Amino acid sequence: MSVNKVILVGNVGTEPDVKYIESNLAVAKFSLATSDRGYTTKEGVVVPERTEWHNIVAWRQLAEIAEKWIHKGATLYVEGKIRTRSYDDSAGQKRYITEIFADTIQFVGRKADGSGQAEPVAADRVSSPQPAASAPRVVPPSPQSDPFAPTGDNDDLPF
Known about the structure:
The protein is mainly beta. It is 6% helix and 48% strand. It has one domain (6-37, 47-127): CATH 2.40.50.140. The chain contains 1 helix and 11 strands; from the N terminus they run E-E-E-E-E-E-H-E-E-E-E-E. The strands form 3 sheets. Strands 1-3-6-8-7 form a 5-stranded mixed β-barrel. Strands 4-5 form a two-stranded antiparallel ribbon. It has a two-stranded antiparallel sheet with strand order 9-10. The longest helix has 10 residues, at 60-69. It starts with 5 loop residues before the first strand and ends in a 32-residue tail after the last strand.
């Protein structure tokens, strides 16, 4: 068994670059920055803030939403899979790029309304439709549909 899952919360670094390919299929690419705060150790050693930049790729409906709603500076929760690909640059050197293929994007943070007061952003959660070949999302069963949920009846099992 293996798991390929990435969860990031960070700030959008570039406006999404959206392209439409093959029969109007949308794909969006943008960068997301995550940062570890700087600190000073007990010995007085200053450890600076460290920022990591992630390449985010969104497909289909998620890409269309990114085109319309995601802008530089927005704080996002991104859930997806890590993918690495390679290409040959103009000098013939093999280059590698690591991307996060987004399954879910959620807006995080606050926005200002006309009154100058901050209000929470609606926690809109958008998920990309999963291809037929991938495993379906697992949803925990409700107590009414769980065949193993306790019923209160004594079923005479020895354990």
